[in-house]
């Protein structure tokens, strides 16, 4: 009986059963089609839902950006930033990042990271091992003696952005292919800030000993440059034979920035290796300059390497003068502001008094700018290079008493507004190399090329960290978008021959990867990433770890590994 009921049920699975009963066959067909339609419709709804969610996320990001723009226009917008109060509760302390990471910041940070990947992969594809890439010709060129400048300059940027695979490839090239025994004349300054600085930063970040070994190798080859009667270094040297000299166009003089911008790197190298010879060479330069340091703290751009005295020449915070003043402040910070480095701070404060004597304002827009000076004559000209000054002033304002601190920080914000308008005043929204200022008509671009420089976004990063004011992020984002629009090519980034018409040059400067993109990335990152409490940037944006320095000149030992890699 049970077998009979089982057989009865199985007949419904037989196709012949339905052929004999057409009504049931039709009903079965209708059921099958209905079920199929329901399943297909649910899959379609799911796909459409996913698409809608994606669109809503994009719309949310867009609305958040619009909301930010509205807050800026209604609250702390462009010109009102100039009066941002020093009396706010932050009191210029570094911005807290306890709050959740802003989704707009995340989005923008990823865009900058993608730009870095585009620049890097283009270099790898077309110029691997060369100093720099020519994106239009799609080939490499050696502008710094064939030292792989872009690779070394990019190490810490790759590390900070969490680009592990790219960092490893760069590290392996340094270990296996970077060779300094070359019969080439190279700039002591450029090699120090890019190569020595880049290697030391990679060492401080990763703890990989190969970077310290290579930094010591190249620094030993540079040391003969300091063997002068005064200790003021010659600015060029042959890496293979150690023959130092100055370029002919300086008339035998050494350049202020080139001679006074090695302190950070060589002091750090002595700290990391325990060998004092590097620190002794560069600190002797400062001791020599202190002997005749002027009351206003402003030095001409040419120095005699035999006597140590200044030659009659221009005083400027732009080209050939700039980073000397920057390193007076940063050597004090890198030494952890201890008694052993107090004289650096004192010299810097003296120089800042001199800087204020060069400050002027335009009419009718009241743009604040820094003049150049030759003898007793002022020249109403300011380089984009001098746009590092707002960031430097913000960073250095901490060492002053409250009233002076507020004055210095206010000057920083005013100069940052001028530098941002260097960009906004041109058709491409990219800054020219320098600007001239005129009574009654504000400013005009002088030398009109743009070579992807970082100084303005550098200052915006400092000011944003110290105030938390998102206006600075907006300014930086606008500059980044202008680079994307005008400088991005299918094989990298190029500068502009003329910011007025957008004509392109054919060089992707290594500092675009080392500085410009790094500062932009940090502008949209939590301040805990490369905290100012633990790190100081060299003038090529390579972060170096701050180490306590005792009055005797000795330092606390650095740990082998001091920074965990941060994923972008």
Automatic annotation (TrEMBL):
<dbReference type="InterPro" id="IPR036026">
    <property type="entry name" value="Seven-hairpin_glycosidases"/>
</dbReference>
<protein>
    <recommendedName>
        <fullName>alpha-1,2-Mannosidase</fullName>
        <ecNumber>3.2.1.-</ecNumber>
    </recommendedName>
</protein>
<keyword id="KW-0812">Transmembrane</keyword>
<dbReference type="GO" id="GO:0005975">
    <property type="term" value="P:carbohydrate metabolic process"/>
</dbReference>
<keyword id="KW-1133">Transmembrane helix</keyword>
<feature type="binding site">
    <location>
        <position position="539"/>
    </location>
    <ligand>
        <name>Ca(2+)</name>
    </ligand>
</feature>
<dbReference type="Pfam" id="PF01532">
    <property type="entry name" value="Glyco_hydro_47"/>
</dbReference>
<dbReference type="GO" id="GO:0000139">
    <property type="term" value="C:Golgi membrane"/>
</dbReference>
<dbReference type="GO" id="GO:0005509">
    <property type="term" value="F:calcium ion binding"/>
</dbReference>
<keyword id="KW-0175">Coiled coil</keyword>
<keyword id="KW-0460">Magnesium</keyword>
<feature type="active site" description="Proton donor">
    <location>
        <position position="433"/>
    </location>
</feature>
<keyword id="KW-0735">Signal-anchor</keyword>
<feature type="coiled-coil region">
    <location>
        <begin position="46"/>
        <end position="73"/>
    </location>
</feature>
<keyword id="KW-0464">Manganese</keyword>
<dbReference type="InterPro" id="IPR050749">
    <property type="entry name" value="Glycosyl_Hydrolase_47"/>
</dbReference>
<dbReference type="InterPro" id="IPR001382">
    <property type="entry name" value="Glyco_hydro_47"/>
</dbReference>
<feature type="active site">
    <location>
        <position position="322"/>
    </location>
</feature>
<comment type="similarity">
    <text>Belongs to the glycosyl hydrolase 47 family.</text>
</comment>
<keyword id="KW-0106">Calcium</keyword>
<keyword id="KW-1015">Disulfide bond</keyword>
<keyword id="KW-0479">Metal-binding</keyword>
<feature type="disulfide bond">
    <location>
        <begin position="387"/>
        <end position="419"/>
    </location>
</feature>
<dbReference type="GO" id="GO:0005783">
    <property type="term" value="C:endoplasmic reticulum"/>
</dbReference>
<keyword id="KW-0378">Hydrolase</keyword>
<keyword id="KW-0326">Glycosidase</keyword>
<feature type="active site" description="Proton donor">
    <location>
        <position position="190"/>
    </location>
</feature>
<dbReference type="GO" id="GO:0006491">
    <property type="term" value="P:N-glycan processing"/>
</dbReference>
<dbReference type="GO" id="GO:0004571">
    <property type="term" value="F:mannosyl-oligosaccharide 1,2-alpha-mannosidase activity"/>
</dbReference>
<keyword id="KW-0325">Glycoprotein</keyword>
<comment type="pathway">
    <text>Protein modification; protein glycosylation.</text>
</comment>
<keyword id="KW-0333">Golgi apparatus</keyword>
<comment type="function">
    <text>Class I alpha-mannosidase essential for early N-glycan processing. Progressively trims alpha-1,2-linked mannose residues. Produces Man(5)GlcNAc(2) from Man(8)GlcNAc(2), but only Man(6)GlcNAc(2) from Man(9)GlcNAc(2). Has difficulty acting on the terminal mannose of the b-branch. Involved in root development and cell wall biosynthesis.</text>
</comment>
<dbReference type="InterPro" id="IPR012341">
    <property type="entry name" value="6hp_glycosidase-like_sf"/>
</dbReference>
<feature type="active site">
    <location>
        <position position="455"/>
    </location>
</feature>
<keyword id="KW-0472">Membrane</keyword>
């Amino acid at each position: 009986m049970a077998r009979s009921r089982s057989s009865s049920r199985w007949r419904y699975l037989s196709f012949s059963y339905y052929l004999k009963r057409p009504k049931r066959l039709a009903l079965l067909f209708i059921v099958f089609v209905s079920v199929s339609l329901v399943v297909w419709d649910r899959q379609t709804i799911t796909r459409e839902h996913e698409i809608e969610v994606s669109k809503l996320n994009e719309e949310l990001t867009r609305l958040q950006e619009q909301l930010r723009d509205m807050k800026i226009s209604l609250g702390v917008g462009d010109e009102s930033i100039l009066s941002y109060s020093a009396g706010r509760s932050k009191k210029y302390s570094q911005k807290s990042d306890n709050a959740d990471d802003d989704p707009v910041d995340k989005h923008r940070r990823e865009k900058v990271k993608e730009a870095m990947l585009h620049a890097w992969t283009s270099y790898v594809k077309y110029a691997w091992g060369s100093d720099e890439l020519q994106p239009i010709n799609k080939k490499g060129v050696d502008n710094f003696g064939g030292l792989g400048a872009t690779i070394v300059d990019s190490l810490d940027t790759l590390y900070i952005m969490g680009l592990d695979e790219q960092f490893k490839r760069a590290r392996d090239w340094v270990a296996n292919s970077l060779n300094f025994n070359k019969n080439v004349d190279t700039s002591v300054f450029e090699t120090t800030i890019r190569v020595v600085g880049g290697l030391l930063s990679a060492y401080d970040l990763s703890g990989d000993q190969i970077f310290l070994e290579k930094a010591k190798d190249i620094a030993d080859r540079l040391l003969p440059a300091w063997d002068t009667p005064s200790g003021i270094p010659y600015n060029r040297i042959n890496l293979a034979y150690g023959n130092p000299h100055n370029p002919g166009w300086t008339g035998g003089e050494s350049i202020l920035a080139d001679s006074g911008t090695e302190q950070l790197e060589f002091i750090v190298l002595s700290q990391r290796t325990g060998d004092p010879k590097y620190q002794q060479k560069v600190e002797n330069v400062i001791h020599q300059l202190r002997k005749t340091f002027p009351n206003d703290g402003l030095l001409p751009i040419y120095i005699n390497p035999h006597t140590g005295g200044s030659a009659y020449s221009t005083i400027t915070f732009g080209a050939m003068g700039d980073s000397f003043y920057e390193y007076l402040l940063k050597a004090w910070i890198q030494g952890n502001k201890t008694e052993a480095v107090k004289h650096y701070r004192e010299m810097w404060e003296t120089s800042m008094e001199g800087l204020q004597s060069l400050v002027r304002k335009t009419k009718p827009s009241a743009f604040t700018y820094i003049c150049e000076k030759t003898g007793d004559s002022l020249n109403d000209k300011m380089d984009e290079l001098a746009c590092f000054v707002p960031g430097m002033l913000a960073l250095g304002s901490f060492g002053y008493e409250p009233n002076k601190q507020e004055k210095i920080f206010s000057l920083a914000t005013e100069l940052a507004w001028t530098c941002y308008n260097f960009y906004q005043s041109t058709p491409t929204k990219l800054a020219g190399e320098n600007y001239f200022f005129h009574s009654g008509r504000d400013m005009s671009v002088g030398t009109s090329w743009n070579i992807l420089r970082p100084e303005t976004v550098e200052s915006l990063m400092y000011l944003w960290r110290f105030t938390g004011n998102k206006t600075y992020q907006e300014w930086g984002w606008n500059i980044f978008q202008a680079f994307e629009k005008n400088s991005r090519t299918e094989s990298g980034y190029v500068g502009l021959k003329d910011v007025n018409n957008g004509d392109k040059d054919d060089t992707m400067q290594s500092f675009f990867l080392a500085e410009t993109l790094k500062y932009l990335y940090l502008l949209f990152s939590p301040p805990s990433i490369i905290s100012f409490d633990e790190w100081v940037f060299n003038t090529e944006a390579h972060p170096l770890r701050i180490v306590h320095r005792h009055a005797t000149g000795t330092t606390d030992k650095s740990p082998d590994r001091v920074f965990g890699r941060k994923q972008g």
